[in-house]
Queue: 4 jobs
Job 1
Amino acid sequence: MAISKRFDYDATDISRAYATARTLTDERARVWAAYLRRELQESGIRTIVDLGCGVGRFSPLLREVFDARVFGVDPSQRMLATAIASPEARHVTWLRAAAEALPIGGARVDLVFLYLVYHHLSDPLTALRECARVLSRSGYLLVINATVDILDSLRWLPFFPSARQIDLARLPSRSQLSEVAQRAGLTLLRHGTVRYPAAANLSAYAEHVATRTFSTLQLVSDEEFHRGASEFTRHCMQQDRGQPGEEIIDTFLFRRRWERPNCDPFITRSEHYVRLA
């Protein structure tokens, strides 16, 4: 049986679950704010594209950390609609577009930010070429994504038998991601990993997994999911000693091998979303 590698965010109501289950808690926000400040605070970032922004959980944080203008870009109508309904939506410009055809003129952006987006790209090379195209001379591309190299760190993965094959089929390796970026005209500055609190303890982490807001778990069968979630919950309750439910993720910081920018206006095509009073 063929393994499904794609999840359609407009085919379900998962955006509603994302708005709660995948929100940035204060603790997670502190971890990522500290990382962003450490890596990029002195970089003069004034314009940011939160590419694959989903329900917009990182867009306000990016705006706050850098005091920058933020464009939230996503191809999913439902995810954007949920983002627009958030209290902080008015501070972000929302655009519906695919990563492979960004509605942005060349050399206009100081930071393109992709968080858990790379494995959803239908054409990673074209998408990263678009990222390189829109970056300013001093701009950065930050890709934060799971890779096949860290699969063994995922506590929940063994409880869902088909999940490993799903992720092996769709996640990049560290070397593959870096190679595609190089072909796209980008230079890797730094690779690292970040360990962050996904939940306050293991029991809460099991509850987090049970929300099924991981795209991998949307691709397993309902029977497998319910069985695995039940077994993982029992496992976490037995192992819980108050330690946080942590996850680890890869980070890749790139710079563009700069070429002469074009002079197109910033927004050249796409559907605009405006928050109504």
Job 2
Amino acid sequence: MATYVIGDIHGCFLTLQHLLLKVRFSPTQDRLWLVGDLVGRGPRQLEVLRWARNLGKQVVAVLGNHDLRLLGQAFEVIPPKKKDTFRSLLAAKDKAHLLEWLRHRPLIHSETPYILVHAGLLPQWSVEKAEKYGREVEQVLRGPQARKLLKSLTWKKVPAWDERLTGFKRHGAILRAMTGLRTIGPDGSMCLDFAGPLDEIPRGSAPWFSAPLRKNKPRTILFGHWAALGFYRAPGIVGLDSGCAWGGMLTAIRLEDNRVFQQPNVET
């Protein structure tokens, strides 16, 4: 049995199937961990969601920012953008089952020595606290206040993290960090607007994973979200978004031997 971790799929279902053939994935024996953003941008989002849902317990998929945007549109709290490609998905006969499945995905998954999260963890969070915060927000997202929580995706300014935050300021800050984090400012605040490569990070800012006193260092964090970073591996971190939706690669890593597999985009 093997566990494969796959980067941001973004509706690139044909590319995904090519990658699964390349790694010889067995749906009865192997497991898949998906870093989120199953949907958004690509042409076959509906197929990706149906495929993931049908795999049942063989797949662990954490929520990404595009997955949340889909839920936000379904709850009618986020207006569609010109480039949004959710129309066919939201018109599907089985959309209710698919959206309910998506709504019940975790924000963070932990199996020693790994942490799976879409974007990253704030440096001041220990692994234990990050798991606790994730569970807090998951409960809200699955409950009657989900609509109000999803509105936090439209916030132009996210509150700086403080353990004393309460209510939707607290939950929104956690949600945005786990699904949108790339860099942090000199005061430790989240810089959610920057999406470029490492050599273009604004002066004074730094990647979230480079903080010298990062409290979640004891684990290896597997994440996606940062396409301009590409496949990136360093002690304690593995970035798996290699820009498949932009015509790049879809990347997987096998946890048992750390072997990396890549498949070029083959979508039409």
Job 3
Amino acid sequence: MPVKTFRPLTPSTRYIAYSDYSDITKAKPERSLVETRKRTGGRNVYGRVTARGIGGGNKQKIRLVDFKRNKHGVEATVKAIEYDPRRTARLALLEYKDGVKTYIIAPSGLQVGAKLMSGPTAPPELGNSLPLRTVPVGLPIHNIEIIPGRGAQMVRTAGGSATVMSCDEGYAQIRLPSGEIRKVNENCYATIGQVGNTEHANLNLGKAGRKRWMGWRPVVRGVAMDPNSHPHGGGEGRSPVGLPGPKTPWGKPALGYKTRTKKPSDKYIVRRRGK
């Protein structure tokens, strides 16, 4: 997917970098596989803001993606590669032999007309979904389950891929894109290949307005607020934070403070990221 740039005839086109969408083969989604997205504006049922900086944006439809791939042994044909406004990866529209249509995350290199399959007997080929115990060591994978049967939860973003390092004693050791090495049940399913749209990291929105189209509103700096609204607020003129270290709006340390403590899943982490 090449990245498209423009001559700087306006301030916004000076830095903007779009996708040319040459990999998209179908403009409109499958009507049976979309739902209307209800906007919250970052507010809960009481009308209170629980997620700052959310609001506005263009209307979007939610694509119903099949992360379980539980039609084992039934061959499916790739009918189209589609755009999803709510995720970085592309979607592939599959049609099974019995007429059922589903969406999956499109791996890099998947072409329209390809035949895919899932299940323990599926060959380890691009786009096929199979248990970790049958995945060859060193092969790139994505859409990885954490709990068998729950559906894929890890490695779903554009350009992401993990690697099976070993499989022993009922668990597979997987190197995740962050560098973390984690043990996952060998009966969990994963999809062969790297997630497509690998050039997504090279895109540039180019202007603040395009961020607003995506539903993001500006977030004000803490030092510009009053002391009731943020720990960094108050003071005459431009003043320093006045604290031993920066804090979040809720008073928690913003740097060097561990937010993950004593989680039951720690025993499955062989090596933490960044170590």
Job 4
Amino acid sequence: MKSRTLRAAAPLPTGDDKVAAVDAMFDAIAPGYDVTNRVISLGLDVGWRRRTVLSLGLAPESVILDLACGTGDLCVELARHGLTAVGVDRSAGMLAAAQTNAPLVRGDGLTLPFRAGSLDGLVCGFALRNFAALPPVLAECARVLRPGGRLALLEVDVPSQPLLRIGHRIWFGKVVPFVGGLVAARSGAPRARASAAYRYLPASVAYLPPTPELLALIASAGFTAVERHPLSGGLAQLLTGTRS
């Protein structure tokens, strides 16, 4: 029987195996997830989320979906800017650990529980690489957004500058798995699962297609003005577009 826990030494799972492994991982590390993110990103993730929300450029009270909302960090940021947030995530553990007043729904990115064209915007934080396949998820994002609705996808990245790339490789390849696993375990997550989860973080960048292909996938799903914005020297990236 295959383990549902992701292991750094094993090939990255695909298809249904990936879905099962990611579900199990996020349920396990939900306790202390927000604290761990602050630590391993050195607090930079707070500014990245703010930039994501600001990139929407939507009027107050616009209804925004936080896809793969996790514990609701982006929902909180949306509310700070006067936007109406609703979150969807597959992980029951993450939803149980959420710290937001926004309504949260357990659901799948392939079948979002919203009418076509009913939302003004959609954000997604650090989850693109966790979906089994991007085209159907992006198509579903386009379905639920009204024409002119805005999309903002926050993801990890790898710096192009050589020195930054070396530091990034050391930090995310060596330090993050140790520190992330330790912090998550002290917050109540099982130690083995926590360590495996934060080994997965640097490895999972391999799931992301090259930038031109990723931008083309977003455009072909039904978005115009698709742009990529490197953040913090390429440690993260913000992908934006407008529903055509």
